[in-house]
Amino acid sequence: MQDLHSVAYFLNLGQQQEIQELEQFARTGQLVIAISNLLHQLQYERGLSNRFLGSAGLRCQQELQQQWHSSNEQLALFHKALANLLPEHGQHAFPARWFRRLGYALHSLERLPQLRQDVEQLKFNTTVAIKAYSEMIQSLLAVVFEAAGNAADEITARILVAMFNLMQGKELAGQERACGAAGFSAHEFDPGLRQRLTQLIDRQDRCFHIFTDYASDEALSAWEQVQRGEFQLEFERLRRLALTAGPQSLAAADYDVRWFICCSERLDAIKYVEEVLETQLLSHSQQRILAVREAALSPDQQGHDLQRGAFDDVPSFALYVSHSQSAGHESDHTLSGPDDDMVHNVSKPVVELIEAQGQRLKSLNDELDAARTELHERKLIDRAKRELIQRRQMSEQEAYALLRSMAMNQNRRLVDVAAGLLSMTELL
C-alpha cells in the first residue's frame, strides 16, 4: 500500500483528478454540441409554427409535422448526452447553479408536446408561439452560458464564449425569421412587430460583434462566408420590405415563402460556423487529455508538478521572508510577519507573479474600456443605419455607404456623423 504521506501519492492523485476533470469537461462539450443541434431544430420548428399560425392553418401543416419528428430525434440525442453527466454516474464536479439551469431547461422541454398541440389547434397567435418557443430555447442557452463559466483553461473559455455569443445571435436571427414569417403570412407588419424586428436586428449585431472578438481565425473565415452568402442580397431586400412596406405591397407575392427560405439559408450558414467551433472544442479537449496522460508517464513530471503546486493559481496573500538572514547565517525564524519591509522581503518568484498579474489586469481593463467604446460607437452607427433604412427605404449597404460618404465629405468620424444624424431625427 502506498504511503499516504508520500510526495508521489499526492502527485499521482493530482494527475488522476486532472484527467478526470478534463474528461468530464469533454463530456460537457458533447452536451453543448447536443444543445446546439437541438436549438437548430427548435428554431426551425418555431419558424414553421408561425407560418402555420400566420396563415390561419392554411400553410405548412405537413412540413410542421415532419419537423416535429426531426426535433424529437435531436431531443433524444440531447438526453443521451445528458445521461453521461448525471450524478449517479459519478459526475459531481459542477456548481449547484449549473444543475438548476439544467433543471429549468428540462422543465421547459416538458411543455413542448402541449405547445405543439396548441399550435396545431390554432389556440393562440404568433406572438404567443414565438414567446413560448423562445423561452424554451433561452433556457437551453443558459446551460451553455454556465458551461462557458466553468471552462478549464483560457483557450476553452474563448471557444465557449465565442460559441455562446454566436448561438445567442443565431437565436435572435431565428426570432427574426419567426417574426417575419408571421408578418409576411398575414400580409401585414403592425408597428409593434416592426419595432420588435428592429430590436432583434440590433441585438444580433451586438452578439455577432462579441463573437468576432473571441473567435479563432478558422471560425472568422467561416463567418466571412456567411457575410458573402448568395442569400444575403435577397435577405436584405426582404428585411427592408418587412420594415417599410405597406399591406398592399406585401399582398402581391409569396413573400412568406421566400423570406422563410432565405432566413433558413442564413441560419444554416451560421450553424456551420457553430460546427467549426464545436470541432475546435472537442479537438482541444482531447489534446489536453492526451497531453496530461503522456506527461504522467514522464520521469521528469514529478518535479514539474511540484513547481506547479507551488505557483499555479496562487491565492492573493503575500509571502514574507526575513531580511535578518545573511549569507552563511540562517535565522531561527525564516518566515516573518507583516512588520517587515514588504518591498525587500517578498520572495522574488512571488513578486514577479504579482507584477505579472497586475500587468494582465491593467491590460484587461484597457481592453474592456476599448471594447465598451467600440460597442457604443457601433450601436450609434447601427441605429443611424436603421433610421436611413426606414426613412429612405435603403438597403443596409446603401445606408452604410451614405454615412461613410457624409463622413468623408465633412472630414468627420463615421460615429460623429451617425450621432449627428440621430440628433436630427429626434427633433423631427
Structure overview:
There is one protein chain. By secondary structure, the chain is mostly helical. It is built from 16 helices and no strands. Helix 1 (7-54) runs antiparallel to helix 11, helix 8 runs antiparallel to helix 11 and helix 14 (348-392) crosses helix 16. The chain starts with 6 loop residues before the first helix and ends with a helix. 28% of the residues are buried.
Give the gist of this structure:
The protein is mostly helical and 428 residues long.
List keywords for this structure.
428 residues, mainly alpha, 16 helices
Q: Secondary structure elements and their pairing?
A:
Blueprint lengths: L6 H48 L6 H23 L12 H15 L1 H9 L5 H24 L4 H33 L4 H24 L2 H11 L4 H13 L2 H4 L4 H42 L4 H11 L30 H4 L2 H45 L3 H15 L3 H14 L1
Helix pairs in contact: 1-2, 1-5, 1-6, 1-11, 3-5, 5-6, 6-7, 6-11, 7-14, 8-11, 9-11, 14-15, 14-16, 15-16
